[in-house]
Inverse folding.
């Protein structure tokens, strides 16, 4: 689920983990870095630039998410680089799940 128009995503996993994630596709970063040149860029260099690219958006919410019980992880593969904040929620308690979803939408997405 999109958290507004700022690029953040919200996901609830079957194991009861709520994820707030911000990332970028490696192809998008390569396009920005190459500026139309056909040079081959190494995956490590592209990943490093991708992490640099997403830091301003992540830094804006990192303190709030960490203080609210989320744990931060960085995910990287050949397709994308993303920073994920994960927090466990009891799926047997629907009101707690809804409260956390609303909180994420309000805090990150700017919607109630």
């Amino acid at each position: 689920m999109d958290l507004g128009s700022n690029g953040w995503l919200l996901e609830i996993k079957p194991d009861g983990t709520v994820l707030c994630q911000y990332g970028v596709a490696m192809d998008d970063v390569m396009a920005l870095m190459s500026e139309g040149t056909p040079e081959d860029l190494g995956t490590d260099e592209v990943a490093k630039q991708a992490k640099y690219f997403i830091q301003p958006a992540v830094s804006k919410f990192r303190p709030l998410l960490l203080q609210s019980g989320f744990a931060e992880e960085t995910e990287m593969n050949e397709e994308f680089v993303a920073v994920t904040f994960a927090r466990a929620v009891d799926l047997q308690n629907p009101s707690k799940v809804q409260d956390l979803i609303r909180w994420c939408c309000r805090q990150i997405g700017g919607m109630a």
In short: The chain is about 45% helix and 25% strand. The helical segments are 26-34, 43-67, 94-107. Residues 29 and 35 are 10 Å apart (CA to CA).
